[in-house]
């Protein structure tokens, strides 16, 4: 639908955050039904829309109402309605199948005791401290140091 509207010069996607939302679909249905004046289309705007005000919305809605583009927009709208109907039927079927599933076994009310991780009286080893000279940023040699400390027995670089 958005592609057909872009070819018509109707920039609904700029002023409405969701073209397939209530306002977008009302405007598309009105375009397909006949009244295509931008002022009439803006009146279909939901009051909760905060992305744009009526003035920019009216500026985005004039278009080139060629018959072939209106036909493509109508076909897209019918396809969208068909797919939405299929999704609703699928959701109903899933709900029926979920209702047929047996109940899951109950969760025990008393929490199970936690197993001991170590024998009592034994302490864990202390974590080792990191040597800052070995692990800090200074531990990474710069290229000059690398070349200067290159062993002669390894040959030239």
Chain-wise SSE layout:
Layout: H1 2-8, H2 12-15, H3 22-33, H4 38-42, H5 54-60, H6 67-100, H7 132-135, H8 143-148
Helix pairs in contact: 1-6, 3-6
Describe, in plain words, how this protein is organized in 3D.
With 157 residues, the protein is mainly α. It has a domain at 2-100. It contains eight helices and no strands. It is elongated, with a radius of gyration of 34 Å. 13% of the residues are buried. The mean pLDDT is 78.
Distance between the termini: 64 Å
- What's the order of the H and E elements? HHHHHHHH
Low-confidence stretches: none
Report the β-strand fraction as a percent range: under 5%
Helix content: 40-55%
Can I get a quick summary?
The protein is mainly α and about 160 residues long. The chain has helices at about 1-10, 10-15, 20-35, 40, 55-60, 65-100, 130-135, 145-150. The relative contact order is 0.10.
């Amino acid at each position: 639908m958005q592609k057909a509207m872009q070819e018509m010069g109707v920039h609904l996607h700029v002023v409405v955050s969701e073209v397939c939302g209530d306002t977008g679909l009302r405007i598309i249905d009105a375009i397909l039904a006949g009244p295509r004046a931008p002022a009439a289309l803006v009146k279909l705007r939901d009051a909760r829309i905060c992305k744009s005000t009526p003035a920019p919305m009216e500026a985005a809605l004039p278009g080139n109402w060629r018959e072939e583009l209106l036909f493509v927009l109508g076909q897209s709208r019918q396809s969208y309605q068909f797919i939405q109907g299929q999704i609703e039927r699928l959701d109903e079927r899933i709900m029926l199948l979920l209702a047929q599933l047996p109940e899951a076994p109950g969760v025990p009310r008393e929490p199970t005791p936690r197993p001991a991780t170590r024998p009592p009286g034994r302490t864990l080893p202390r974590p080792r401290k990191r040597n800052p000279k070995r692990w800090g940023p200074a531990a990474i040699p710069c290229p000059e140091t690398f070349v200067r400390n290159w062993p002669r027995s390894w040959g030239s670089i």
